[in-house]
Amino acid sequence: MGRPRTPLLDRERITTTALQLVDEQGDFSVPQIAKRLGAQTGSVYHHVDGRDGIVELLRERVAEAIDPGTLDLAPWDAALEAWARSYRAAFAAHPRAIPLLMTSPVRAPRVLEQYERAVNLLLTAGFAASEVMPLIIALENLVLGSALDLAAPETMWELTERTPTPRLAEALAAVGEGRADRAFEVGLAGFLGHARALLGT
């Protein structure tokens, strides 16, 4: 048999297939990737550094949607706000990837470069080195939690007559549509207010 004109396997196809599996079921396996691509499991390993390597390819793929130009904005708080919004949108497109990516160390070069830029932004703004990573991690917690919230059902509280909750019912009725977006705005405003106060002291 002749070799196919288009190779069955390359890093791009492996990443795309792994992300499809994660979007569908929340995880992937190398045999599943191989089966979808019509290849042998061993052949997949010729192109990637095992499962961990695929996870990092997924991290890079999802993070590609984060606009790196946001970190060039001025002043620093406008840059951080724009980065947070772009970061949230990128991960909201693949919410089932969040638990997978957040439970493995970050090694992807392009993602590390983005963290480097965020750290530089805060240090240049005048934050103490000891304050920088807690701020970035707190912002990530907000962003990723909100990205997951966007994928949740609009109605997360099912009220029953067995447990009277009239004030909860009142509050839920008052919030209207866009609960996740409104909650994100509250969290982001609170985070930025804290960061500005921290810099001021």
Automatic annotation (TrEMBL):
<feature type="domain" description="HTH tetR-type">
    <location>
        <begin position="8"/>
        <end position="66"/>
    </location>
</feature>
<dbReference type="Pfam" id="PF02909">
    <property type="entry name" value="TetR_C_1"/>
</dbReference>
<keyword id="KW-0805">Transcription regulation</keyword>
<feature type="DNA-binding region" description="H-T-H motif">
    <location>
        <begin position="29"/>
        <end position="48"/>
    </location>
</feature>
<keyword id="KW-0804">Transcription</keyword>
<dbReference type="InterPro" id="IPR036271">
    <property type="entry name" value="Tet_transcr_reg_TetR-rel_C_sf"/>
</dbReference>
<dbReference type="InterPro" id="IPR009057">
    <property type="entry name" value="Homeodomain-like_sf"/>
</dbReference>
<dbReference type="InterPro" id="IPR050109">
    <property type="entry name" value="HTH-type_TetR-like_transc_reg"/>
</dbReference>
<protein>
    <submittedName>
        <fullName>TetR/AcrR family transcriptional regulator C-terminal domain-containing protein</fullName>
    </submittedName>
</protein>
<dbReference type="InterPro" id="IPR004111">
    <property type="entry name" value="Repressor_TetR_C"/>
</dbReference>
<keyword id="KW-0238">DNA-binding</keyword>
<dbReference type="InterPro" id="IPR001647">
    <property type="entry name" value="HTH_TetR"/>
</dbReference>
